[in-house]
Amino acid sequence: MHYLTGxxxxxxxxxxxxxxxxxxxxxxxxxxxxxxxxxxxAIDNSVLDFYLTSRTQKPVDQVTEEERIMLVKELVDIYLLxxxxxxxxxxKDPQVQAQIELQRRGVIAQLxxxxxxxxxxxTEEEILAAYDAQAALAPDLQYKARHxxxxxxxxxxxxxxxxxxxGSFEELAKSRSTGPSGPSxxxxxxxxxxxxxxxxxxxxxxxxxxxxxxxxxxxxxxxxVIFREESRATAAPTLDSSREIIVQNLQQSKxxxxxxxxxxxxxx
Length: 268
Description:
The protein is of the alpha+beta class.
């Protein structure tokens, strides 16, 4: 059987099923119905249903009969392996017990967090306030630039000298740049300052349109010669296009506040 083709595969499947069982016990155990018994231990329908969906990534009613038969056999194998004499000794291992305890608590914590997000309310006033704050922080300008990336300051100074002599920035980028934009003449397209590392961004903002840097600019990637082609006013994103991410951020902020409250009330 493919399921038993290696200890790593078994370990992965076993971990998945342990998590599945824990989730099932927490979420659905009250309506359990036995569908198979393995050495006196019941496998209930909720465990099987969760295993089917986790293995096939399909709703239970879309699992084929052939898949169901195969996965029931897998589940039986897991119960057999986890209930034999060797398993009794393994279960006594402190690391195994710690892993199971962490999985149990992780599943419960995830369900509690999910329940919190389902119930959290984000008002239109909060969305509008967040949108206004986001718009206020947006850069005023975007820039269109090219750059030539070089490995040393000396090489960058040489390129600047060639530009001073009338060299083509685009052609020099193609022949000298070590960066991925070199073949396209160093073209970086349009970008906001916050999309670039600070030394590069600062240099671009200090330039005028149509000018290049007369001193090399160093970043973690190397030495740059930068040409600012154009600039334009930043078009603020619409509320509708921003709404989803704003709501998510507000929900996350509320969840963090909830966690902070739990931490504040924690006792030793």
